């Protein structure tokens, strides 16, 4: 059996001051001189990513580079600067069907501190297989693990960027990943009808009404209501509401122009600032939330308090905590809709994540007929083509309607 792996890299904050001697498990793994050299290449690359990209980007690249180097050291036993296309395709085969002791059933921290040393968490694994939200009680069979097409794409993207970094540093002579990708047998040419993960109008109404009822019963839930409405109406990602290392969302990021139009300044993906239009209907919820915090009805330029504040302590909330708030509303709305309309109508509320609210709001705006360019800019998409691909389903709706006329006889 292939040896069970251990984590190689901590969080970015710990990576910056990382002393290898503190991580005994890693030292015991890196037996050959080239092992330590490869580990240092990965550390240098992740330091660059952590300095210049978001926390989510760092975490994503860390997972992929760590997994690739573990495979190179434990399984392949070959230096990555010697790899050709066939080696990368072999790695893709490994990612498609990894050994069961490389697969975990939940996410775990990589390390825990014991005295002067950092111990690897034995529960951590490079691959994760979890039950869907709507079937948490099912038994997990690790042998059935298969990465999604998006996951497989992420593997190639991260390793490509890693090799490009090594080439820039004059370490690697070339990048075999780019030529291997087109020959990977696990990629599927996708011509499917794209399903946008969104709520129906009826499901959204249940969610909003549930959040309002929760807030009416207790001021503690005013924050839940505000977050849900922000994500859907302003098309925000959960990370754009959360406290970040280099950005703290504040109330004075709401601002009004000379024509009395309201905007919200957002720090988005790729460290890009954008201004999102704020419709008048949203102001009612902004005022309601601010009054629950004993603030004035609308923000002013000096109002630098956290946009979504912690109940305990100071400052804004983390993405994880914000997701927990949204999930509480989803769970309550699902229970309520299940009783009134049955499992089939309520099911999406059980499956949904916070990101569905962004998709829901944007999809509704497309259906309303708002110009695609305006929606794209509010979403923060680099290209209007992205918005068109994800959200515009008009042609498929027409196609589905015309298909209903077919007869069996």
What overall form do the CA principal axes indicate?
Answer: globular
Look at the structure and give the CATH class of the largest domain. Answer: Mainly Alpha
Q: Into which percent range does the helicity of residues fall?
A: 40-55%
CATH topology of the largest domain: hpI Integrase, Chain A
Helix-strand pattern, N to C? HHHHHEEEEHHHHEEEHHHHHHH
Q: What percent strand? A: 5-15%
Rg calculated over all Cα atoms: 24 Å
Tally the helices.
16
- What is the straight-line distance between the termini? 57 Å
Number of domains: 2
CATH architecture of the largest domain: Orthogonal Bundle
List unreliable stretches of 5+ residues. none
Biggest pleated-sheet summary = 3 strands, antiparallel
Structural class: mainly alpha
TL;DR?
The protein has about 400 residues and is mainly α. It has helices at about 10-15, 25-30, 35-50, 55-75, 85-95, 150-170, 175-180, 200-215, 220-235, 280-290, 320-340, 345-350, 355-370, 370-380, 385-390, 395-405; strands at about 105, 110-115, 115-120, 125-130, 255, 260-270, 270-280. The protein folds into two domains: about 10-130 and about 145-180, no CATH class; about 200-400, Intergrase catalytic core (hpI Integrase, Chain A, Orthogonal Bundle), CATH 1.10.443.
